[in-house]
Amino acid sequence: MAEAAGVSIATVSRVLSGRRSVRPEAAERVHAAVTALGYRPNPAAKGLVSGRFDTIGVLVPDLANPYFSGVLKAVTVHAAADGLRTLVADADNHASSELELACGLLRQADGIVVVAPRMAVSDLRVLAAECAPVVLVNRVESGLALPVVTVDAFGATFALCGLLSRLGHRRLAYLAGTAGSWHNAERWRAVQRAAAFGLESVAIPAGEGVDQGYEAFEHAMRHGPTALVAFNDLVAIGAMRAARQCGIRVPEDLSITGCDDIALARHVDPALTTTAADQRALGDRTWQMLRAVLYGEPLPDPVCLAVQVIERGSAGPVPW
Amino acid sequence: MAEAAGVSIATVSRVLSGRRSVRPEAAERVHAAVTALGYRPNPAAKGLVSGRFDTIGVLVPDLANPYFSGVLKAVTVHAAADGLRTLVADADNHASSELELACGLLRQADGIVVVAPRMAVSDLRVLAAECAPVVLVNRVESGLALPVVTVDAFGATFALCGLLSRLGHRRLAYLAGTAGSWHNAERWRAVQRAAAFGLESVAIPAGEGVDQGYEAFEHAMRHGPTALVAFNDLVAIGAMRAARQCGIRVPEDLSITGCDDIALARHVDPALTTTAADQRALGDRTWQMLRAVLYGEPLPDPVCLAVQVIERGSAGPVPW
DNA sequence: CTGTTAGCGCCTTCAA
DNA sequence: TTGAAGGCGCTAACAG
Fold this sequence. Notes:
The structure is a homodimer. With about 325 residues, the first copy, chain A, is an alpha/beta fold.
């Protein structure tokens, strides 16, 4: 490659990185050789020697969940705008492999975003000890030296409970996410707090997906709730389908709420009453924070984004 | 690290790779030092020298589309079972950046899976010229020296048209995907072929997502179709919502069909009549093929998976 | 402006 | 069974 252009290997590097000044004539020859040979620099080698990969990494628990692809998208777009590539690792819901994936990513990227609602706290500490550019999303652990961007999951669900209470509901079932998930813990805590306003509740184990919501429905109904608060929109949609199959009308006979406001929430019938964090904002703030740690800027304070209740058709007055 | 264990750097390598024989006592000391220091080998360096990354790459056009996360998932699981990590790159619907992303991945992975329905043929040729382990998914181009796994998109849509024809439909609108997409071309070709059976059709530009289906609906209805054949399930779901808002009942007044059978297809109301390739099979065959090229096994023949029509509630007899 | 030199962290011969 | 030595492909000084 270098010889094809009749220059030294260092000059090729200079031309391609565009930082240093090179005689236009030589640069021309290099460019010609590059296109002629289809040469592409090896990012691994470049990163190894320079420490910069021009790449960021994102670790998510499950790419099949549209909520994660949402934050991912936002970060990817921002990174691209700053000339950085994004590499994604999917833990496929195995919290135990997340630390290893994160550390691997960290050695092939300039910084990483970790969305790990279920990673063990001890693993989180190991990650923090790396002292590398890591931003944690949707997870709060006290005493962890990691920049964090979260969403007020507690407040969101609490507000949802407030809405249901005003609609006259007194007994609800919480369709829980995976045990050990930070989001799940926050939401269930909020549901329990709502007891102070006369809202009784039971937690029914469900999960993260449509099928789990569908399957948990019958179990939940045995407790005679007038409203179902689902861990997320997918679970809510699954429960709605189960209700329809049982001839139970939503929201006339039963109210169902979701969480996250994924794209589909407004497209099901009835449209889903849910809670929404501004995903754009989440992506913006996450990127802002990662960039700060990347460039050694002063560390931004932890961010906790407000969440809004989106009233659509799936929650209504309690039936008499 | 090596000195912490009192051995040479080469011995550490041997212990960690586990291939060569090492005196148990020394191995013990190395392991102790590894856990004590939290040492993790650098994958970039390892790959650079050995040429093996123990990683495969997957390039998809858009992670927000559940269809892609489906094939991704299947491949990830298989790779993990064989001890390989998966790294994902999202082209964010910019077909023009796909070649570069693919080449980048190729230098950080042992092989890649490229799902690129819209990548330019010229770029595809460049990729093929790399003579690297690349498997192309859902794309057929004649004369391309690349192993391919596809789905019979033409046959799927044609079968769907057959169903609509038997239901008495004579005029349908095709809600098209992005121009230039292989899938889109195949499906539109099938719709046009159906003219031979008395099915007239118009193509209405839509896109890949729910919102595009929603927006294309009005335009499509101006042509007076009794059935809408959507590019994919998301577009169909968007169109269904638009229909509902216009007071048009599905399927009594209008039939709507999708493609892909994403998880949500069965959860909307009415449940979506659509076509499904076995995603498990797609993932299986893709992995099988990638593994073959990875290990230099004889190249499997191109695979084209059959697709089934899934009749659910969204397509019915033509209204009289 | 450009070529030479010295590694980045690791694996893999080659001797010992 | 082990250590020393030589790169993998590239960038970042350093001399010219």
